[in-house]
Specification:
This protein is an alpha+beta fold and 266 residues long. It has a domain at 149-221. The protein is built from seven helices and four strands, in the order E-E-H-H-E-E-H-H-H-H-H. A hairpin with a 2-residue loop joins strand 3 (71-77) and strand 4. The chain is elongated and about 90 Å long. The protein binds zinc ion. Zinc ion (ZN) is lined by residues 56, 60, 102, 147, 155.
Amino acid sequence: MGSVILCRVFGIPIRAHFTLFLVLPLFAMRMSQSMGIPWIGGLACAIGLFASVALHELGHAWVSIRRGYGVRDIILTPIGGVALLKQSPRKADDEFWIAVAGPLVSATLAALLGLGGMTVMGWIGWRSGELACLILGAVNLSLFLFNLLPCFPMDGGRVYRAWMMKRVGRLEATRSAVRLGRWLSFALGFYGLFYGHFMLILIAIAVYWFAKMELRGVEMEEAPRRPPPWAYWSAGQPPFTQAQPREYTLDDQDVEVSPPPWERRP
Ligand SMILES: [Zn+2]
């Protein structure tokens, strides 16, 4: 919604939210001021930052496609990127590998640009190229570290959920990850408020909101399947007839299927 397609990679549309175009000049100005480089250099760094985010998301998307979950699109916003999967991962291993793929891409880019790129540029003697590699290497290193915070639905939080999923199942694992992520997003928000990092406050709010939405989705998917109410009268006989031949006592408080009222004993 409110986004334009920039390009397609592996057939996945990469979209930019319209707010990204509004903040891009501000990002460019901030970067050129803080590093003492010309405005055009700041713009190149800002574009490099969002290209790094897109590559991080493509890492998630590629593994997601390989594991049989489709990817609808990748959306870039001023506070980060999202790869929207066609369905949420149901297996712990799938969740784990999809989650770590993004940070692995960022770590690889950090090493390639920070070490390889800077060495090559220094060797050529191109000063601006060396600086660009240093900045983008640092950007990718921070993307790698920040995303590994166990703040669900960020990557670290998803790794935590995958680890918990093997122990307590998908629903309880999601609840636990959301609880942990909620505390961390409060901490991030207060840190942002205290040190005047406006972006961090926005990220904390987004993380809190998306975690809540995802928990609601998982709760609906994992809810026990119950026959619809009309099954009682449309079938012409009470349902669960095969599950009935046992005595019910008042202590049977935790049974899932209750006997029909006309069979209930005092
Ligand atoms: Zn990620």
